[in-house]
């Protein structure tokens, strides 16, 4: 086989490997999720609403925001807690309540 034939062969092998990897990821439900905040930040929730923000580590949340309750902090978009906090919020007393704008 000549040089051109070998190159074509490698391309076919590479394309087949890529196709197999994509198929495997799709079939296993593997997906890449975005982090809620960037490295060095933590997420906070709007008191009485479903809004959120990210605050640099070591800083306090802005007025009107609070930390998520321990163990209920969303880490990635669409994870269990990110979905939960779309319909719940924290009131001024720190209690978890249904969000008024949950529709």
Automatic annotation (TrEMBL):
<feature type="signal peptide">
    <location>
        <begin position="1"/>
        <end position="25"/>
    </location>
</feature>
<keyword id="KW-0732">Signal</keyword>
<protein>
    <recommendedName>
        <fullName>Lipoprotein</fullName>
    </recommendedName>
</protein>
<dbReference type="InterPro" id="IPR058119">
    <property type="entry name" value="SCO0607-like"/>
</dbReference>
